[in-house]
Structure formats: C-alpha cells, structure tokens
Amino acid sequence: MFDPVCPSDLTPIRFGDKWAGMLLRCLEHGPRRFSELRVPLRGISAKALTKSLRSLERDGLVTRRAHAEPTRRVEYELTALGRSLLQPIAAACAWAREHWDELLDAREASSLPTRPVQPVRG
C-alpha cells in the first residue's frame, strides 16, 4: 500500500477519503507528527493531509494532541473507534492483494479508446 509505484486510487474499497485508510494504517503503531505522516504518504500534499486528518478527527477516529513544552508539537493518534477499523482495512488490503491483477486488467480495459457507435440506417 505504501509502495511509491502503487496507484493508491486503484483499490475500489474506500474508508473515508482517498488517504484515510492509509492514514489509519500509518497511526497503527502509535502517535505520529504531521511531518512523520508525510514520509510514508509521499504523494499527499500538506493541504490534503490536513483535510483528511480533520475529517478523521471529526468522525472520532483520530485525536489531535498539541504539546506546548518543551517544544511546541502536534501529534495524531488513533482512538479506540479508529483502532476498530484496522481489522476491516486489513481485510480490504488482503482482498486487493488477491485481486490485484484483475483490478489492473479492469482499469486498463476501461481506459482503452472505444470505437464510436455507428448509427443504424434503415
């Protein structure tokens, strides 16, 4: 899922927005700072990351904790509700791995140019 050549929009199963599932997986092993989240999510812009984190926070899946001392920093962490999504996400990832070739074939077939429909003359 975090491979740089992997098209993250290929998987048809979504948890929230395009990045939400991957963000939840990034937070699986504990709290992380904004800049730490951008490392595995190479293709995400700061704006998209902020929007996705706010959405996850609004839905009760992630908490945002600001620390003032000794240096100001903000960390994001999964809530119990967010942790409860890890198993369904793992199942979706396993399904995508199993059907990866079929998904790629379907995407490729749908992107082929189609011939224009000829009108029926009668």
From TrEMBL:
Keywords: DNA-binding, Transcription, Transcription regulation. Residues 6-104 form the HTH hxlR-type domain. InterPro entries: HTH_HxlR, WH-like_DNA-bd_sf, WH_DNA-bd_sf. The keyword Transcription applies. The keyword Transcription applies. PROSITE patterns: HTH_HXLR (PS51118). This is Helix-turn-helix transcriptional regulator. It comes from Plantactinospora alkalitolerans.
